[in-house]
Amino acid sequence: MNVMERRKNKNKSSIPSQMENGDLPSTSTCSNIRGDERNILLLFFLYTLQGIPLGLSSAIPMILQNRGVSYKQQAEFSFVTWPFSLKLLWAPIVDSIFSSRIGRRKTWMIPSQYLIGGFMLLLSSHVNKWLGEDGSAPNIEVLTFMFFSLNFLAATQDIAVDGWALTMLRKENVGHASTCNSVGQTTGFFLSYVLFMALESSTFCNQYLRTVPETEGIVTLSGFLYFWGIVFVVTTTIVAFLKRETDAANVDHERDLTSAYKSLKSIMGLPAVQTLVVILLTCKIGFSSTDSVMGLKLVEAGIPKERLGLMALPLIPVQLAMPLVIAKYTTGPKPLNIFLKAIPYRLAFGFVAAFVVFITPTLVPDASNGLPFYYVILLFACYALHQVCVYCMFVAQMAFFAKISDSSVGGTYMTLLNTLTNLGGNWPAMLALYWVDPLTWKRCDGGAESIDNICRNNEEKVLCEKVGGKCVTVLDGFYIETLICVAIGFLWYLWGAKKVRYLQQLGDNAWKLKNKKSQKS
């Protein structure tokens, strides 16, 4: 009887650790949110808060583009997106080191949200100066540091909330946590990117929301940051004092920390995973120019940034339906087949994107008078086709990751692969932004002594203007870069398609960690 009780207690205590690793125990109990409504609403709100820094980090490059910053500076600012791609490095620490008095998850969530609120309040007082509204050049270094810090704190909060969701919700409702995550982050991103850019634009507000035109939008960046800074501080205080955290069971947290890093090392040691790592880190090189530069080039050509943001609205139903449509192609033994089929179309879209950027000044000589209807349809069609390719690849990847992940290490496997996927998009995008200016050919047109001036930097640009000339672009580096990226992409496809098909043919044992513990008979 003592043996049976010990085994029963062991099984009970193993459930929380399985849940922490993302390996949810099977249960025959159907989901019933009755009694968990407030917890689900709280999770939705916490995930919405995460989306606010993410959306702002996407809006700032559009604002900077209107301030005339270089693409090298845009590349520098793109570092702010890296924390969510690297959070796996400190996630085990967040999961393992905590104060029992405060709570395992609140130990990290509460300080992170207070700091986010503090950073936003600080930004609200200085962001206009750092953006160069007083006539000076934007301070890219400070802006990068501030928004990198915001995203680092948001990523840390994400780790804590992900873990808290597993114990906040009843066991049969844990599946709703992923819904809260995706819907909440999307809501936050929408509020701080699409809605903010629309309400911050004086043109949009004067055209659609006002009867008397004004020089500023309804919302300013400093006011938006101040509002959300207060929201973070107030709501964090409420959660800190009114929401108690209950851990499902005692877990050997020190062991969790060491075993998590050992698991990562073991996973990376698998030959199949090493091949997959190379694929994930290189497969997006061919798309990097289109994905990271096209939108900025359209803003540079005069297209209002809020119009580009609003393009996403009609596609929300499509984005929600795409996983369901693609599911029948990704549930079989070879989910990456649709991934491979989408790559040539997405690469070919690079030429379409370059063509759209090229003809934009001709089709829209003055965007202040509004965008022609046919141009809006053209942009929307391009964006829709691009998103279809993106979602096909994304859903196929997630299906393959779920298929190969070793359940013995649970969420660590999936999180590692997702991290590598994000990194595979971040570093090519950064380089694509950096190389736009060096690849651009310019000359000083008109004025004395303009023959030897090719406007390579601000000094030569100032010199050109002093002698009565004007720097003109002979060949935009975006077109050269797009051609190079697409060429690399098709070369990668010749190599990568074979490797992907090979990985799909491997058995489950190629992806599983070997149990090195000696078994005693």
UniProtKB/TrEMBL annotation:
GO function term, MF aspect, one: acetyl-CoA transmembrane transporter activity
Pfam families, sorted: Acatn (PF13000)
Keyword set, alphabetical order: Membrane, Transmembrane, Transmembrane helix
Q: Is this entry keyworded Transmembrane helix?
A: yes
Gene Ontology BP term (one): acetyl-CoA transmembrane transport
What protein is this chain from?
Answer: Acetyl-coenzyme A transporter 1
Q: Which organism is it from?
A: Diabrotica balteata (Banded cucumber beetle)
Indicate whether Membrane appears among the record's keywords. yes
